[in-house]
Request: fold
Amino acid sequence: MNPWERFALVARGGEADRIPVALIVDSPWLPGYAGINTLDFFLREDEWQRIYLGLPARFPDVAWIPGYWIEYGMATEPSAFGARIMWHRDQPPSIEPVRGGLRVLADMEAPDPQQHGLMPLILQRYIDAEKRLLPEGEAIKMVAARGPFAIAGWLLGITELLIALKKDPETIGRLLETLTTTVVHWLRAQLDVLHAPEGILVLDDIVGMLSPKLFEQFARPLLTRLFAEFNGLIKVFHNDTPCPHLLAPMASLGFDVFNFSHTIDMGEAQTQMPQIALMGNVPPLEVMVRGTPEQVTRWAQTCIARTAGRGLILSAGGGVSPDTPPQMIDALISATRS
Reply:
């Protein structure tokens, strides 16, 4: 089996020939790993392709999630709502909250992925990328989007968002409905331009900040609607905010794979989410950047022991952090061979 086949089989509830290793990688890590600046990574399609094609050659046992990801940090979805983006040569872009906040945003219509913000440019880049990748025997398997709460956090600022959830639920609810529709349309637009996609990745750390009550009031209906739109595809949910109080409630949202905080015990997560494939759970910063290869392997072996390897996709407890050395990924892989 190849790495994607292992990942997909476990994601769908099956058992692979060995524990799959999968990693979320994007612009915080890839430019530094490849030795180029961030703007070159975004703008030079030849460099982008070289870097992504080089990953399976250097790490042949890893499934890259979503893989061949055309992204501009967190900027894509906020750009369609008029957020001001600040570009940097040495890190992903930063985003200023929209002036006027909720008052301005609450009744905006959902943007059109074919016309607004960075979305049309990304769609064209996906079309062009697959024209070059398919002859190489490579295809883009997954597409990705930030979740509605994450987008709201960039558009409003986290503090204003959390205050609005408590003090102005009707108004923030309208915006979150629009953002959920935006995410669905954006994922569909990406899927529609690809040859044979198999999955989606939704990233929303802000959900983990909600109380159980706010989760049921806001997150459950919106995320259930979102994931239900993509039945038949592998659905991965990334939320690495520590949220042990939400494990059981999140298990019924309709996703297949959960990538979560390393601070949550793997055994407890498996107990609370028995039908979900768990993607983790080695600390991405403290161990995979600042630790040693031996620590990575030991931590990974602990994850395997805590789950007995069932429904486990070995990974970092979040995305691959900037400055993660390649040998740490090698050490992660080695844990599946012992």
Q: What stands out?
A: The first helix runs from residue 3 to 11. The chain has a mean pLDDT of 97. The radius of gyration is 19 Å.
